Every structure is written in structure tokens, then in C-alpha cells.
């Protein structure tokens, strides 16, 4: 995995990011971070009461039309930092009481993040690292993270090639996400928790229900449970928030209804899913999305 002919993710743009070129992710090889702070809105076993030490990286290899972090995903927010500074941020978040270090949208910076993790561990860093990804990963790249990442937190967005092409220009999403997930599960095995119920090792797969895509979501939940069973936790999310720019996709320019979400949760229960998380309350409010103002960077 390298920056000079970038082949880190399935896009394989082959641009020289070391020379300042950008590919689909819209980022060069310079690390850009938009926020580093305690985050309380992850799954309970990730955030706990103290919060997850979350580092939001700028840029993204997914480009979903419904992106809820568009300012950073498109590279319009964030500060350039060094690998050494990233290591310092890990220790600063630990000092604030973080349960873990939560690397959000890390894929396109994988080589730099690996170096920061290695340096931190050489200096005695002992919190778990969480790899929080959109799921569009190469299994080969995930293999490079073995022994460095403790918790994998991937999205599993799409089953249908038609839907993944329409909303993320990724016709091979299901194939790539599934191969990457198999590697994540191989590395982590069954989940491990501490006495306070905080995850120390394991895999949580997130699925965001999209408006009008209930059947696709059922296929995903069924596939995940039949193929991975209780070796993963499944987090079923209803927080889809239609922000500006969705007028070209009016079919998803709305929130998910309670009836849609309840039907998906009931389906998961009916097929036997027990290791899971669901969302309740007003998670679709825009205030659920943090400010990307450079805090902690």
C-alpha cells in the first residue's frame, strides 16, 4: 500500500499523492484532520461514559451522495498535521479519559496512520485502536493492519450493485466490503469486553437504513447473520439525515420512517440476531453531526 501510485483502496486511482496529486478521495499524502475530541454518540460499548477519542480525517474514498460529513469528506475542512502530531493527539485524547482511539474515515491515510500507531505503541500507548470505515476496503490493505487495530467498525452500506453504483459510484461495493469484513473477522475473532462493558477487541458492522431501500437492508442483515453469526455485532441505524444537495435524488430526500426502521429491526430479531444495537430517539436531527472546527487538532 503506497501513496506514489495510490492503490490503497478499491478505487486504485494510481495517482502520485506524494507529488501533490489527488484521486477520488480528494487528498494528497498530507495528513488532514478536522476534529479530535471525545465523542459520545458511538455504540455504548465504544463511547461508554467517558467517550471515544475520535479523530476525523478529511477526504473519503466513498463519495456517497447522502454524506452527512460532507464538509470533511470533500476536503473542505481540516488542518494539515504531521505523523508525529497525530501520535501526540492519541496521547492527548487518552489524557482526557478516552476509552479508545477512534479513527474515522482513515482508509486513504492508512500508511501514515500505521506509522503513528507504531510510534505510539513504542512509547507505551495502550488504548485500543478503532478502525471506523465506510467499508469500501481492500482485504489486502486490511491485512496490513493486523496487530495494530483492535476494533473494526465498518459500514456495510449496500447489497445491490445498482444502489451502490447510484449513490456511491461503487458497483463492486458488496464484493470489496465482504472480502474486507472476512479479513477483519479473521483477525479479531469473537469480541472481548472489559468489566465495564467497553469493547477491547472485536467487530461491529454498521448498517444505515436508506429511505426506500428496506429490501436491500434486509438482504444485508440476513447475509451478515448467515455468514458471520455471533462473531460480529450488527448496529442497525436510522440516523439518515437528508442534507442539502439531495434534490437530484428525490427518492431519498427524506428521513427514514419509524415504520421502515421498526420493520427492519423486527426482521433482524425474527432471523435470530442477538448481538446487535438499535437507535432510539431523534438521531436524525442535524445536531447529531459534530462541528468540524479543528478542535483538538
From TrEMBL:
Gene Ontology MF terms in the entry: catalytic activity; iron-sulfur cluster binding; metal ion binding
Superkingdom of this protein's organism: Bacteria
Cofactor: [4Fe-4S] cluster
UniProt KW Phosphoprotein keyword: no
Radical SAM core domain sequence ranges: 55-183
InterPro entries referenced in this protein's UniProt entry, alphabetically: Aldolase_TIM, MJ0674-like, Pyrv-formate_lyase-activ_prd, rSAM, rSAM_sf
Keyword annotations of the record: Iron, Iron-sulfur, Metal-binding, S-adenosyl-L-methionine
Cofactor note: Binds 1 [4Fe-4S] cluster. The cluster is coordinated with 3 cysteines and an exchangeable S-adenosyl-L-methionine.
Residues that bind [4Fe-4S] cluster: 60, 64, 67
Pfam families (alphabetical): Radical_SAM (PF04055)
Protein name listed in UniProt: Radical SAM protein
Native species: Velocimicrobium porci
Amino acid at each position: 500500500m503506497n501513496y506514489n501510485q495510490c492503490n490503497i483502496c478499491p478505487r486504485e486511482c494510481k495517482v502520485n499523492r506524494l507529488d501533490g496529486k489527488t484521486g477520488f478521495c480528494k487528498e494528497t499524502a498530507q495528513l488532514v484532520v478536522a476534529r479530535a475530541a471525545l465523542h459520545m454518540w458511538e455504540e455504548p460499548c465504544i463511547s461508554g461514559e467517558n467517550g471515544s477519542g475520535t479523530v476525523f480525517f478529511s477526504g473519503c474514498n466513498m463519495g456517497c451522495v447522502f454524506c452527512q460529513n460532507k464538509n470533511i469528506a470533500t476536503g473542505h475542512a481540516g488542518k494539515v498535521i504531521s505523523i508525529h502530531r497525530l501520535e501526540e493527539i492519541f496521547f492527548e485524547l487518552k489524557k482526557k479519559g478516552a476509552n479508545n482511539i477512534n479513527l474515522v474515515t482513515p482508509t486513504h491515510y492508512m500508511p501514515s496512520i500505521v506509522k503513528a500507531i507504531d510510534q505510539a505503541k513504542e512509547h507505551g500507548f495502550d488504548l485500543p485502536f478503532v478502525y471506523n470505515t465506510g467499508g469500501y476496503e481492500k482485504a489486502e490493505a486490511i491485512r496490513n493492519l493486523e496487530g495494530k487495530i483492535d476494533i473494526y467498525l465498518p459500514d456495510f452500506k449496500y447489497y445491490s450493485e445498482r444502489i451502490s453504483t447510484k449513490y456511491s459510484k461503487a458497483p463492486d461495493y458488496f464484493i470489496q466490503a465482504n472480502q474486507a469484513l472476512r479479513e477483519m473477522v479473521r483477525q479479531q475473532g469473537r469480541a472481548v469486553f472489559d468489566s465495564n462493558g467497553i469493547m477491547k477487541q472485536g467487530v461491529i458492522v454498521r448498517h444505515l437504513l436508506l429511505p426506500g431501500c428496506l429490501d436491500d437492508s434486509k438482504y444485508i442483515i440476513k447475509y451478515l447473520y448467515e455468514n458471520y453469526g455471533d462473531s460480529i455485532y450488527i448496529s442497525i441505524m436510522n440516523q439518515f439525515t437528508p442534507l442539502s444537495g439531495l434534490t437530484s435524488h428525490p427518492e431519498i430526500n427524506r428521513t427514514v420512517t419509524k415504520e421502515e426502521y421498526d420493520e427492519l429491526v423486527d426482521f433482524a430479531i425474527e432471523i435470530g440476531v442477538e448481538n446487535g444495537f438499535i437507535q432510539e430517539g431523534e438521531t436524525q436531527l442535524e445536531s447529531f453531526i459534530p462541528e468540524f472546527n479543528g478542535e483538538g487538532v
